[in-house]
Each structure stands twice: as structure tokens, then as C-alpha cells.
Structure prediction request, 242 residues.
Amino acid sequence: MNAYRILIDGTERPDYSVEMTTVFLPRIVCDVCRAVRLEWDVYHPSLKCSAKTLDAISAAENPACSWEQIEKLRKKIPRDDERLWDLPPGCQLGRQRILMDGPPDFPDFDLDLNCPLISEKALDILANNRITVYSGEVEILSFSSRKRLHGWRAVDFPNVRLMTENAIRKCRLIECKRCGEFREADPRAWRHHELIKDRWPRRLGVARLVESGRRVASPEFIEVWKRHKLKGIRFERIGKWV
Ligand SMILES: [Zn+2]
Prediction:
């Protein structure tokens, strides 16, 4: 069965800006590969952090952070399911505030934002089909009136490890033994993904691949999305499920 990543489609989107209301886990510069671990697109609004926890994370933000320090901060964050939340350095936590310029017309899914959004309508349809998308509260305000707009939630992409060793080689991905960061040696080789179906968490709709960083959807998610003609994303083949 083919495997697909998620991309935005041509649906029109309103202009927007964000107010920095979230905090980041500290970044790490790896002493072996020199990669900066900064996964700014990993955003976890569904993790409920107290103001105290967010303050502690915010205070720890400095470029010289160690893995030990990250581990200490991670322990402060309550999680429902430990397996799904590999919180990487640099990921965003907390509630995002989006200022929207124009009519409230985000599509059902919008990836093209600092904080990806999904409509409550789409979430209901997916839930009725027993598909889980992790989501959390987002604050959307009209830029001019500062009025609160409803109907969307922030999407979480759990980090999952799904790729076969064979596909990691064929996609020319090189893993740093020290920090686990993957480097793409040949950006043209990405169509060789092989995703292990048995490792996909049951009923999960969307996730982010640790190995290649691609955001992928389950076959069930794609079937429901297309059947209900939901708007905002399209699916591009990246390889296959094995
Ligand atoms: Zn490294």
C-alpha cells in the first residue's frame, strides 16, 4: 500500500500573524555532528502545561543546554501517553495566539502556519470514523476587532519512528549516533520511504516521521478526508507501507 505525506493544497488562506505566547524547550548544538536540534514545527498544545511549568521551561532557554537539562524539563510535563511524545529540543509548548487579517476562512487543515490548524468540523468527522488527531486549544483573534474566532484547533504531530533500515539507506538519511538527528545526504531520494504499519499507533490520523521529518497520514485518515471532500491539504506519495 502506498504511503503519503501531507502538503497544503491550493485553497485560499487568510493573512495572519502570531503573537509569541508559546515557549520552547531549549535548543542543543550537537558536539559530534554540529547539528542544531531545533524542531520548531513540533508543537504540543494538547499537553496541558501549568503556567509554572511553562515559566520553568522559558527560564531554562539558553544555547548551552545539555541533554540532562532537557530530560529534567521533560519530566515536568504531564503526558497521557509516553510513547507518543518524544519531546525534542526546540519544540514549542503552550497555547498559540494567531491574529487573522480578513474573514474567518481557514480551510479544514492548514499546515502553512507557525501552528498547524484543523477545523472542528473535520475533527468531528474523523472522530465519528474512529480516527484520532491530537489537537489542542488555539486562540484566533481578528486583527482589527480583537474578537475571538472559533471553529479551529491546533494540530499536534506526534513523533513516530516508522522507517525500515532499508528505506533509511535508500532515502540517503544519515543518523548521528550521538544526538539522533538525521541528515538528508541526497534530497532527491525521498520517494523511497518504507513505513512499518505495525508501529503506527492504533487509530492515529497524522504524525511526523522522526527519520525524515515528513508529516504523514494513515490510509484510513486519507480515505475519510477524501470521502468527505475536506479542504486544505493534499497527499503526495513518498513510498509504501510494509
Ligand atoms: Zn549529532
